[in-house]
Design brief:
- The structure is a single chain.
- By secondary structure, this protein is of the alpha/beta class.
- It is about 40% helix and about 20% strand.
- The strands form four sheets. It has a six-stranded mixed sheet with strand order 6-7-8-3-9-10, with helices on both faces. Strands 2-1-4-5 form a four-stranded antiparallel sheet, covered by helices on one side.
- The termini are far apart.
- The structure holds adenosine-5'-diphosphate and magnesium ion.
- The site of adenosine-5'-diphosphate has 12 residues, from helix 1.
């Protein structure tokens, strides 16, 4: 085996929230990028994929552990690493040519050397004719070409890509993926190793030689899949679909096996998935219509959704005990069947019982309101508590979900103007 170009050694990363507490995002992550390979990093949203990529790019410092390029510890952005972003990150007041040149300017390449290199990068990525256009004149696909050209103009040894195709329409994304692979196959292509973050499983299997799956809370590598297929890959071939299946399984397995832990879950150790009652209910209806068991990837593709879109619903159903998952399948529990078939009042009753027992934040709000004067509390009280374990955005999202669930269950009411939570009078 060739020597690794990039080595990530037991990297742990926590962010400090406004109240000074540490939020773990990555935990003891180890990985290597070797010469000649494309590695995909697959994981649900929030699992720390971008953070890991930024650590390798030298943009973020790990809290513990090291990232090395060769033998050198990565402590700042390096000249031989380039990054492509999901949102293109172009400067709107610069032309295509100037945006691409920016990559070289940052490296202090003399002016005389820049022009031929910019021209070469622009040609290579199919932007000739657009040199003087401004980003706003370009389609998303053309903008991402500029993103690629700006990264490739520095002839990076290591190319890092953070969901580079996910903001593009399907055909444009497919087209650019194909072009990237053709460039990669050229012997003159200077890049030796690629790490690509994605939440799209097919994309990972189409491009990567190895797929690493990152688990949530805090992010750690859950497993690795070797793809072992030649380019270009037949995305309908049996081997391809087998690997897609394996990746789905690895991504979805053990999504909510938290009950095995002895410590009682709390609102911060068991966050609520970002799922509305309507979303959860709709998904359970679909599963019930298929006899109570469904393949999660098929469910997602049948809805024209990515797995990432449907996973919060699956996680929520699991957390509430409405369904279980294993091997990429979701199966309704008895409560799940009853919920899917019940009339609205019965469904609310089932949901109320499960949410109070199994969703720690809903249980905590219910309990606090029961003990509060007038059975009322300001939302700020809960937000303060949530900020101890979540970032501001995440804390707001947690509360929003708990309000949605508790309202539906008729456990409590929320007055958005007064920012006041009130326990439902009919519950005692
Ligand atoms: P992914 O790319 O897998 O969606 P990220 O790496 O962007 O995940 O984020 C992982 C977690 O870290 C999220 O909960 C996010 O809110 C948090 N996070 C990321 N960057 C910061 C930051 N600069 N400060 C605080 N929290 C952050
Ligand atoms: Mg990200």
């Amino acid at each position: 085996m060739s020597t690794p170009i990039i080595t990530v050694d037991r990297v742990t990363k926590s962010f400090t929230n406004p109240s000074g507490e540490q939020l773990p995002v990555l935990s003891e992550v180890c990985l290597e990028l070797r010469e000649g390979e494309i590695v995909a990093l697959l994981g649900k949203s929030g699992s720390g994929k971008s953070t890991l990529l930024r650590i390798i790019a030298g943009l973020v410092k790990p809290s513990a552990g090291t990232a090395r390029h060769g033998d050198t510890e990565i402590t700042e952005p390096g000249a031989s690493t380039a990054m492509v972003f999901q949102t293109f990150a172009l400067l709107p007041w610069l032309t295509v040519w100037q945006n691409v040149e920016l990559g070289l300017r940052a490296q202090g390449v003399p002016v005389a050397e820049r022009a031929p290199r910019v021209t070469a990068a622009i040609d290579m990525i199919g932007l000739d004719g657009f040199e003087n256009a401004y980003p706003k004149e370009l389609s998303g696909g053309m903008r991402q070409r500029v993103g690629f050209a700006r990264a490739l103009v520095v002839q990076p040894e290591v190319l890092l890509m953070d969901e580079p195709f996910s903001a593009l329409d399907v055909l444009t994304a497919e087209n650019l993926r194909g072009e990237l692979i053709r460039l990669w196959a050229q012997t003159a292509f200077p890049t030796k190793t690629v790490l690509m973050v994605t939440h799209n499983i097919e994309e990972a299997v189409q491009l990567a030689d190895r797929i690493l799956v990152l688990d949530n809370n805090p992010g750690r590598i859950k497993g690795e899949i070797k793809v072992g297929l030649e380019h270009p890959r037949d995305t309908r071939g049996r081997h391809f679909l087998n690997i897609v299946d394996q990746a789905y399984r690895l991504l979805t397995d053990g999504a909510f096996d938290g009950d095995r832990h002895a410590i009682a879950p709390t609102p911060t150790t068991r966050p609520l998935p970002d799922a509305s009652v309507d979303g959860i209910g709709g998904m359970l209806d679909l599963v019930a219509a298929q006899g109570g068991c469904a393949d999660i990837p098929e469910l997602a593709s049948g809805l024209r959704f990515e797995i990432d879109d449907i996973m919060p619903l699956v996680d929520a159903a699991g957390l509430l005990g409405l369904a279980t998952t294993s091997g990429g399948e979701i199966e309704l529990t008895l409560d799940g069947h009853n919920f899917a078939e019940a009339d609205i009042n019965k469904a609310k009753e089932i949901f109320a019982r499960l949410a109070r027992d199994k969703a720690p934040l809903v249980g905590a709000i219910d309990h606090a309101l029961a003990n509060a004067h007038n059975n009322q509390l300001r939302d700020g009280f809960f937000l303060d508590l949530l900020r101890r374990g979540f970032t501001e955005d995440a804390a707001q999202r947690q509360l929003r979900t708990a309000v949605d669930w508790g309202r539906y269950a008729e456990l409590y009411e929320y007055d958005a103007d007064e920012r006041l939570l009130t326990r439902h009078p009919f519950e005692s």
